[in-house]
């Protein structure tokens, strides 16, 4: 099928940088339709102008370009970029982002002998325009046709390693609809980082990676010199899709043989227990020299509880998806521009409630108001039979609890208030809940979305407007001089060059 290439490559070229680097990324749109690039997990501190989603940015018109100017401020770890409009993500257009620690800040493991980025995701044989038409028509997507590892099918990629040495694998789930399990035949994996946070270094034989999530593992090549399977397979699907690559020892005496090792398929308790075992390494330095455990999130009083329930209502005879009964519809003008230029009628604050309404679904451009420097409790509630995956732009959050059944205030008695992992994308199991503590320390208009791309496209998202009345550059950068204007903001001037 037709794919979206970046500089002629699929996946696109990796972006490699160091904490606090300034990145200048010029995106030339050679497609025949508008395009936007977003940055999964890059916080865009004080700078939602560069977030690259339709709520904050005008699309880049065909034949034109836009230059993103962003800083990877106080971040380390493994992330990825992807196209955020329509169903472009189904055609590729994604690539890895690696942020290394500054040289003087210690990392809690020896330097690996090498690193590999692995972008794994489900793949559909239909063109992205056909998939979009299916969704626009009110139907659900078909089951994926397969899995890809770095844009390739099974056994078409070989990763060469030296016996006795240790390598780092950065694995991201860049798919549209399906969680995956990742494993390497005959080898153990030591988890060291999740979306910018050093973890307790637990050892796993296989790891579940949900939609939009990124994990880093260390693998020591301690097996006899031959070739081994690297395996990704789908989770929680009735039919299991599998993709393999080859781990090739440089002194290999033989190729892979036999079937690839199997992994978990539909076991939810197994996955839930593994998720709870992913904890923060409290003694490791993060992107700054102070230890990650110096932020005692469990001692901060939350000022607000936001409960968010996903649902799958039929609206006007078509399948839609909703949060707290609201199915998001894009406005004719990016919300950030409407906010900045004070254009009335584009959105209303409070157009989505803090709690599930229990009512039927309805269409709305949903924006939730929030105060800068508030500290909030967010509870994702999933009453459906599917595994959900949620992403919050512009912030990290601490995962304090997840369990089956209905969340209640009594659930707080079992929260992890000490070493819960901090990250930006989290799963919610079927008929379960996941609770987060989140400092709202980043002014801007921020997308909160399902990472299931069909659900996101059909309304399972909204925007969080984190507001500071100070109107100060200390809190938020001014509008970029090169910002594109469109919709009702057309003709407005940004600021003098």
Textual characterization of the structure:
With 497 residues, the chain is mainly beta. The chain has 3 domains: 1-102, Cupredoxins -  blue copper proteins (Immunoglobulin-like), CATH 2.60.40; 106-284, Cupredoxins -  blue copper proteins (Immunoglobulin-like, Sandwich); 295-487, Immunoglobulin-like. The protein is 6% helix and 36% strand. It contains 4 helices and 34 strands. Strands 7, 8, 10, 12, 13, 14 and 16 form a 7-stranded mixed β-sheet that branches. It has a 6-stranded mixed β-sheet with strand order 22-19-27-32-29-30, with no helix packed on it. Strand 17 and strand 18 (242-249) form a beta hairpin. The longest helix is centred in the middle third of the chain and has 10 residues, at 268-277. The model has no long low-confidence stretch (mean pLDDT 97).
CATH class designation of the largest domain: Mainly Beta
- Outline the low-pLDDT stretches: none
| Backbone structural class | mainly beta
Instruction: Work out the helix count.
Output: 4
């Amino acid at each position: 099928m037709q794919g979206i290439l970046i500089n002629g490559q699929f996946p696109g070229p990796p972006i490699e940088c160091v904490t606090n680097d300034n990145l200048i990324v010029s995106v030339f749109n050679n497609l025949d339709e508008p395009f936007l690039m977003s940055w999964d997990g890059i916080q865009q501190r004080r700078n939602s102008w560069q977030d690259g989603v339709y709520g904050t940015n005008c699309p880049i018109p065909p034949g034109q370009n836009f230059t993103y100017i962003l800083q990877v401020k106080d971040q380390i770890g493994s992330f990825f970029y992807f196209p955020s409009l329509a169903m472009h993500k189904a055609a590729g257009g994604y690539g890895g982002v690696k942020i290394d620690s500054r040289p003087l800040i210690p990392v809690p493991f020896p330097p690996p002998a090498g690193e590999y980025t692995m972008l794994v995701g489900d793949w559909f044989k239909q063109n992205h325009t056909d998939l979009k038409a299916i969704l626009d028509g009110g139907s659900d997507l078909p089951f994926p046709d397969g899995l890809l590892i770095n844009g390739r099918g099974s056994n078409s990629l070989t990763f060469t390693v030296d016996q006795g040495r240790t390598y780092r694998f950065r694995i991201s789930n860049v798919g549209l609809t399906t969680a995956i399990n990742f494993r390497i035949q005959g080898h153990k994996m030591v988890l060291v980082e999740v979306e910018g946070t050093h973890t307790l270094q637990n050892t796993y034989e296989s790891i579940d990676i949900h939609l939009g999530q990124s994990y880093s593992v260390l693998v020591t090549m301690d097996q006899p010199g031959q070739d081994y399977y690297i395996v990704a397979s789908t989770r929680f699907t009735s039919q299991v899709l599998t993709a393999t690559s080859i781990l090739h020892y440089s002194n290999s005496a033989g190729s892979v043989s036999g079937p690839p090792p199997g992994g978990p398929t539909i076991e939810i308790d197994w996955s839930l227990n593994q998720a709870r075992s992913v904890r923060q390494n409290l003694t490791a330095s993060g992107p700054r020299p102070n230890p990650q455990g110096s932020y005692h999130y469990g001692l901060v009083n939350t000022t607000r509880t936001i409960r968010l329930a996903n649902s799958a209502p039929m609206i006007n005879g078509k399948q839609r998806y909703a949060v707290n009964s609201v199915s998001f519809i894009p406005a004719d003008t990016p919300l950030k521009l409407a906010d900045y230029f004070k254009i009335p009628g584009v959105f209303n604050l409070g157009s989505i409630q803090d709690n599930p309404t229990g009512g039927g679904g309805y269409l709305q451009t949903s924006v939730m108001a929030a105060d800068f420097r508030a500290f909030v409790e967010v509870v994702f509630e999933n009453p459906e039979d599917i595994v959900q995956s949620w992403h919050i732009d512009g912030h990290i959050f601490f995962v304090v609890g997840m369990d089956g059944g209905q969340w209640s205030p009594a659930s707080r008695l079992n929260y992890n208030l000490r070493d819960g992992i901090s990250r930006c994308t989290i799963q919610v199991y079927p008929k379960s809940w996941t609770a987060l503590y989140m400092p709202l320390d980043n002014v801007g208009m921020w997308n909160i979305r399902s990472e299931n791309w069909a659900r996101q496209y059909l309304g399972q998202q909204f925007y969080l407007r984190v507001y500071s009345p100070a109107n100060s550059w200390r809190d938020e950068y001014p509008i970029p001089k090169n910002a594109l204007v469109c919709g009702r903001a057309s003709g407005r001037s940004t600021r003098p060059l």
